Structure formats: C-alpha cells, structure tokens
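ok so heres the complex, three chains, lmk if somethin looks off
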Amino acid sequence: MELFVARLFDGLANGSTYALIALALVMIYKATTLINFAQGEMAMFGAFIVLVLATEQGIPMWIAVLIGMILSAAIGAGIERTLIRPFDPADHLPLVIITLGLFLVFGSLAGIVWRFDPRQFPELFPSGSALSFGVATLTWYTVCVVATVLAVAGLLTVLLNTTKIGLAFRAVSSNLESSELSGIRVGPTLQFGWAIAAAVGTLAASIYVADPIRQLEPTVMARVLIFSAAAAALGGLDSLWGAIIGGIAIGMVQSIVVQYVPFIPNEMSLATAVVVLVLVLVFKPSGLFGTPAVERV
Amino acid sequence: MARFNFIEGTTQYRSYRWVTWGVFLLALLLVGFAYADTAQVTILDNRYNLGLPRINKAIAFAVAVLGLQVIVGYTGQLALGQSFFFGTGAYLAAWLVADQNWPWLATLIVVVPVCFVLGVIFGVPALRIKGLYLALVTLGLAAVFPAVVQLDVLDEYTGGASGKSVGSDLLPPSWLPLNGINSVLQNIPLLGQYFGEGDLSSRELERIWKYLLFSILAAICLWMVSNLVRSRPGRAIRAIRDNETSAAVSGVNLSWQKTMSFGIASALGGVGGIIYVAELGIASPGDFTQVLAILFIVGLVVGGVGTLSGAVVGGLAITFIPEWASSTEQFPGVPDRWLQGPTGTFIMGILLIVLTFFLPGGIVSGARRLKAKVVRVLPAPPKGFQPAGPIGDGGDADVTVDDEPATADTDLAAR
Amino acid sequence: MKASPWKRSVAALMAAGLIFAACGSDDDGDSTPAETEAPEETEAPEGTEAPDGETEETTAPEETDGEETPDGEELALEGEVEVAAGTTLNLDDCPSDWDPFRGVDGDEIRIGQSLPQSGPAAAFGPIGEGMQMYFDYLNDNDPIDGKDLVLIARDDAYEAGRTVANVEEMIDTEDIFAFAHIIGTSNNLAARSITDEACVPQLFNSTGFPLWGDPANFPWTIGNILNYVTETEIWCTAIVDEFGEGASVAALIMNNDFGATYQSALEACADAGQIELAEVQVHDQAAPDITNEMTTLASSGADVFVAGTTGAFCPQSVASVAATEWRPRYYMSYTCNNLASFFSPVQDAAGLLAEEGSGVRVTNSNKVCGDPAYADDPAIQLTVEVLDEYGDGTTCADGSYSTGVLFAQIVEDVLRDAAAMPGGLNRVNLISAVWNIDTTNDQLVGDGVIQTDGVNDAYLTETAQIAEVVVTDGELTFNEIGDVISLEGEGGSYQGG
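and the predicted structre for the whole thing:
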C-alpha cells in the first residue's frame, strides 16, 4: 500500500512536469497548428541560461529564472519573426522541417558550448516532505510543481480569455483568414504566442532540473519531450487543460501501470505510454479534449 | 530556352537518354572500383574519407528514405517511425543469417513480407490518427524500438544489449572478373592511378561485390517505386496527399491505399535494414533509436520530399554530413573546442533551415533547376500539328509549349 | 518520367566524387618508400619474405627476421606465431596486403580510436582528448622509440554502425598501427570482427565486458582495466564479509550491454547463495529520470543497494536515496567514480549519506584525480600537469580527461615493451607484449600491478580498493574501506559462448 501511494506521488510529480512542457507545446499548436519539435531543446537552452546567470553572475534564483524567461521569450519571438513568418501558415511541411532543424541546432549548440557533464541546478522550491507515510513521501517540490502548473495554466487561460491580445490569439487559431480580414495583425499575434511558449518552456525546464534528484545536461529535455508530446496529444493538442490531464495521465501510466501490471517490464514505460496514446487517439482522434478537425473540401 | 532541347520520341532524344544512362552506370561502376580502398582528401588540414563501407551504408539509408518518400512524400502521411522497420529488418536478417544460416539474399523473402505486414498493422490505427498526432505516435514507436529489442524474452534472438553480430561473408563469385576489370581500369591513362595498383585484396573484393549487390537491390527498389508512382495506385496515393476528402469523394479507397502505402514503406525500411546489417556485420539496439528516425526525416527533406532521386541524395547526405563534420577538427576562425562534439548535428540543423528557405524541394529541386537551364525535354507535338503564326526563335525547338513551372517551390506539386 | 534529372544529379555527385578522389590520395600509394623503419632493422634483406606481393606496399623490403639479439628470439612475422601462453597468431590468414609495420614505419606511431564525442555517451568523449594530451607530453619529454605518438580519434556517437565504418576507414587511410580504447560493448564487438580479420591490434576495449579476455580465439583484442564481472564479485565478497550470506540486495540496472553484465553477475552471485536479490529495477537508457524505479527500490528496504548504471543516472540515484529514509550499504559502478563529473552535482546528498552510514562505495582500481586524498600523489600530480600544459588549462574537474591520461599510460607501457623486444616495434611484438604484461602503473590502487599471461590471465587488472565517497572540509573525497582486494590471475580467460 505504501508503495502504491509512493508511486502515486511519483506519477504526480513526473506528470506535472510533462504537463508544464505540454502547456508550451499546446500554446504553439493553438497559434499555428504545428508542433514545435524544438520546444524541449529551447527550454533546455533557456535553463542553461538561467544556470549561467545564477551561478556565474550570482543572481538570486527566481530573478534568474525570470530573466531567463524573458530572454527565451525574446529568442522565441525572434525565431517566429525570422524563420516562421516568411512561410504560409497553412503549409505545414516547411514549418515542421524548420522546427526540426531548430531541434538539432539548439541541442547540439548546448552540447558544444556546455559539454555533456551533468550540472547541479540550484533549488527553486523548499526541500523536504510535506506528507509522508513510510516510504511514500510527498515532497514540497511535488506540491510546488503541481501548484505552478495549475497557476500557469490558469494565467494562460485568463490571458487568452480576458485580454485583447488573447482574443486576437484565439481568433487567429480559430480561423486565420477571417482574422486577417478582421484587421488582426497575424504576425505579431503569432509572435506573441511563440514568446509565451518559449518562456513557459524555460520555466518548465528550470523547474524540472531544480529537483534535487535531477541535474541539467544537454540531453535532459530530449528525453522528456517524447513524454510531454504524448501528454499534449493525449489531452488534445489545442487544449490547455487537456495538456494537464494528459500529463498526469502519462505520469500515472509510467509509475502505476508499469509497476502493477505484471507482464510489462519496467523499461517499457515509454512503450506503454505510446500504446495508451494510440488507444486514446484511435477512439478520439483529436485527443481527449481537443477540438475535432472538420474537413472541408 | 535551354541550351539543348529534345523532343520526346525523336532519335536525338533516345540517344540522349542512352548516353546519360550509360554515363551514369559507368560512373557507378567506377566509384565501386575507385573507392574499394577508402580515399582520403585533405582540406584545410582536415582529413576526409570516402570509402565503400560508408557508401554502402548510405545505400541502406537511401532505401529507408525511399520508404519515407512513399508514405510521407507521395501519400502525405506523417509517419515518422521508419527506424523501427529499418531495425526490424536488420535484426531479422541478422538472426536468419547468423542462427539459421540463411544466405543473405534469401532473407529478403522473409523480411519484406514481415515488415510489410507490420507496416499494415501499424497503419490501421493510423487511419484514425491524422496529421501531427500521427507524427508523434510514430516517433514514439521509433523511440521504443531499442527497449523492445532488449526484452529478456527476445534475448536469444537479438543478442540483447550487445547486439547481434553476424559474420558477413559476402564473397564475390569466382566467375566475376573483378580483378580483370580492375586491371583494365588501372591502365587508363591519367585516371588509372586512382584505381590502386596490383590486385584487389580480399577485403576490397568483398566490398565491391557488396556495393554491386546493394546498388542493384536499391535500383530495383527505386524502379519498383517509380512504377508504383506512375501507376493507378500511385495516382491514388498522390490524390490522398493533395486532398484526402477530394480523393475519397473521387472514389479512392482511403483505407486500402493508406495501409498499402504503410506496408510498402515499411517493407522498404526493412530492406534498408538488411543492407545495413549486411554491410556492418552487427545489429545493435543503440543504432535504431528515434535519433535515426529523425535522421531519416532529415534525409527525406534534404534530398527532396516527393522525389525518387531525393532518396538517394538524402541517404548520402545523412551518412556523410555527420561523418565529415566530425572529421573537421580545425577551421580557420573557429576555435578548435567548438569543433568537438556534435557539429554534424548542428550542421544538419542549419542545413534544414537554410534549405527550407532557399530550396524547399531539397537538393534535387535545385539540381533540376540547374538542369533545366541546360537540357529541356519537350513532349512530341501531336501528328499533323502545324504551328500557327510566327514562333519566337529559340534554338532547336519548333514548338512552344508550357514547360514545367520553373519556380515550383515544392516538389510536392511537381509530380 | 523524369529519370534523367535523378541520374544527372547522382551522376554529378559521382563525378564530384571522382574529382574528390582525384584530389585525394589512394591508400596504396601512401607509404613513402623513402622512409625506412626503425634502426634495428637495417639487416640486408635475406630473401625478402615480405608477406605481401605488392611492391608499393612496403616501406622497407626487409620485413624479415632480422638479426638475432641476445635477448631472445625474435618473433616471426609470418606463419603461426605463438606470442604468449595459449595465444597464437595465424599470420597466414591475414590479408594479402598486411604489414606488421604499418603505422610505425615512419616517424610516427599511429594509434586509432573510435569513441562517442556526441550523442548519449558524449560525456566520455574527453577521454580521447585526455589521451592526446598525454601523448603530446610523451612526445615532448620521452618519445617512444624516437617516434611521435599520434592519436587519431573519430566520433561514432556510440553507434556500432559508425564504429564499424570508422574502423574500416582508419585501417584504409590512416595507417593505423593499432586501435586503443574503443568505447562500448557492441561497438567493440563490431570492430573486433574487422580487426580480427585485418590482423590489427585492438587494445584495451573500454567496456567492462569480460568477453575480451579470450586470447585463444581472439588474440588481437584485449580488454581494459577492471571488468564488471570482477567488480561485482568484489561487491559480493564485501557484502558477505559484512552481512554474512543471504543479505538482501536491491539493484538498479541500466537497460543496455553495460547494465546487463552487472545483472547477470549479480544473479550468479545470488545463485551461489551469497546474496538474495530482493528487487531489480531495469531502467531505460534514454529515460528522463529514474524516480519510479528508485521509489520501488527504496521501498524494498533491502540491506544493500547496487547501482549498475552510469552517466547522469549516477548522481540521480545518489540524490534519490538521500531523499528517502532508506540507508542501505550503497555500491555504485566504478564508471561513475569521477568525483567532478558525477558527485559534485550532488555533493550534499553524498555527504548526507556518508554521515548516516550509507556513503556511496565504489570499487576503484585507479586513483581518482580530483580526490584531495591524492593531491600529493606524484602520479596524480603528473596528470594535473599534463592536463594543464597540454590541455590549455584543463583540470581534472572538467570531466573525464584524467581517465584519458591513465589509459594513455597503459598504451605507452605496451608500446615501450614491444619496442624493446627483438625486432622492435611491430604488430606481432605488440600483441606479444599485450599478453605478457607485467608492469605497474602508479595511478592504480594497491601495488598498481598490471599483469597478463596469455590464457592463464587474460585480464589486465583484477585489483581494486573499495572506497567510500565522503565530504571532508567541504570537499568530496574517497575514504578507503578495508584492504585492497586482489583477484589477480583468478580471472583466467573468458569461458563462454
């Protein structure tokens, strides 16, 4: 029983992190209906920037994170302006290829600049456990991560639903041509989406590696990306709250299903997550909470 | 007008085709003999190698990318898990040859149907899952391949974590006068020195033989896919790519065509895997990860989506770019330290971005544009055609026809 | 159908390739006939028994049995040559263009290496750089046989496919005398079939797989220091000493060749009744983290925890255990013994565990550079100097460079041994030297003995010191536990399929 609860907490902890990155993926998808394959690597790059600011410049942690987020937002906006905007948003293939290229570029750049040794990331949340029975400990870290995810999702929802720019964003993601005709400047709106997504990504990566159990190194996000992408897809690529549900679900599948279903060996946790994803998508092709695509000829 | 203009059906045109094919095949053959022993070029103090082992590996990759061309380029389905089938083909072939003592070519009989069926099976859920969701799921598939292969229950077949090694004994038959050809080549004035001296060693003989076998196998695959594309199912899948709903409305059986495409693409992936393991002698789990899946996509795009020659170009690119990048240990103006580490990946990333801007149809589209400046093939005018009125003068053509749009941005539409 | 453009572009590529070849040098013509080999071989050619018929191949025609030196008989360079106990080289099976002096016939000794400089195992890339630094130091201070020692290292991103291509190309174009310290089990396995057929020495395979101690079947290949089976046996011995038989063990195993070796060795230990495997968690090599696995392992409450994993997962496991209340006896794979790389990120956790009686224990066979306990050790000081001077200010804390220095020293030892043999530096002598090593290296613990004896003792070292990671005065260091354990000579050679 203790182990079950412990695994439950683990699932919650992992799942929240997947959810946080999935939120960034969803933001981009909502704006552009494409997946930014580079999201994880950009986030990792941002986390390195935060690390450099905190350790070499001696800036207090949360300020460093904030500066890192702002810098990442700038990078994200810059990428949109230079690499994404020249292309017709309806034509997906070139854009997917560009994000794939960015994935390779950011990943290798981090490896070239900072090498591959793991580095300790300063803590962001108080350590220690909030609750424990026996082996099962719910650490403050987990609690804070869940809180952050909910807060970010909440903020994003408020942003999208009550501000002018949020409205523009929703218009653009719902119907591009009509928005242009209505006078919305699509380019800057998308740029805003990219900037927010980049900032959220950096926050997510920083939180992920701030866990005392983990360290920062260039391959850290690439391994998480596939789980986060699965989480986003599971919840529906254009649903923010779906991303959270999806994230928790994937986290739980990893920790509970793999442990308690006897014939699934541990190293198949990713495989299990993929199978779950396939099953859900077969029955709900746009994810649990995503808007189904309507085809018009 | 281009420098040379040919009208289809004329003898000129036929000679042109014979000559170009001849030159190409000759070049292919020469490459085999010239690079049987790896050549090395030194540029800016960096030593770059070009040899048959890697060329053979590029052929394996080219066949896999060809599979991707079928499913992504021609059918428009974002199925990115090709490395899964590549790995399956490799392991299956390795097991058959190492444990069951089959000859290499016989493994085709098993690998092709198995990978085809696997592809169809995975294609079934793909009927429901579309677009980027499909892309993610298939990438996930690619990511789990190493774990699957290392499952304890499969250990005796796959060699587990150390991989399955196969003594790849592909020796040329004695009736093939490889040495004879080599000596003839060595006697060519001026170029002869690049074919080495003396007889071919057994290692070189084996490499040339493998190169010839693999090239023929790849050529057969290319020929089959080219036939497929020009056939009725080929038009059907391209219709699906361009607009699924219209295709369905026009009578294309979506489920059938899509699953068949998946099957064919996976079968090609499996064939690529056979070539890979026949050349390298080992199938190890770390070689078939999602990194390889992404690499195949890079090859697809760099070569040119929706083209056949793009598969070959792409295969060569993804084999040699990482290699030559890591051979670049110094470059004027760049600190040495920056050249250690994943420079190949970095270059490929930049290449993807640059190509998307300047050459979205990949290298092949750029090559075609260049070629269009030199050679143009015009369809034959219908019988009894009389040109009406004055015709702008331009070289040898006596008809004005609408040519292929020289500014097609993507080759997706060019078919 | 536009087959023409396809042909043309590929033809253009091929043409480019031919031009490429035109600028390049084909290997056969590479060896300059002007450079003769080592001075010992100035004997006039007595019936030149050059093993190959190609005249352009040879550097000097006298590759024959030279003069007999009083030190003993020179080893033949053709036919069957017994180089060590139970170890025979069949030189007639070698390719027709084989040359025992390839790579040392000029003024260089060319050593080839294929290792991960990118990709999942890139953290081990600096080993190659460290080796080069030490080679540079040697060339400046005490050159072997008067020649420049050169390391040609190529990236294989830990992929066996690229290792194969690298090895083949290096044999073809780089005039390699021998390969050293290729990393990875499947990588070395793949390379072995090539080097065995090409009769090229493949030395010190950097993977703890016991497979390489098989001189009877694969004389051209030998493994490196401490293999994982021996390491696990040392753990077992220590566990039994501490807990008696049947102690419960929880193990974290990485899902690859590396981890699988630990797992099977642990299972062998359990089968012999020495331990009881309470819980084994295998984790994916590409897993983002191991929290799930660690939770399960912690809940087992076993007496002992064994971390048969490497890379980023080492510090993760340390931090995980520290975060729980579980305080087992903790053994970790020695591949993570680099304090700077793997322990400094989790210094506090490691310190906590040490204080609470669960300090991380590692079987070190080498003195770890960066450990303050060895700050005054001359061998370590040499390493620090070499890194600093030849690495532009690199320090031991920067990564696995120091490991490269150690590896390079072992290469140096066998090269010197071979050069001192009658006939001088050639591949046959090198293999003989490799299977008859009897030397010491001061970077190793204990008496630092490195010894092999053909099939009787096919492993370089079987000596280790168990040491615990502690934090003293704010610095990470090792505390030795017990005596140096030596299983020297007990390894025999590899038995098994």
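quick notes: Chain A touches chain C through 39 residues (CB under 8 Å). thats all i got rn
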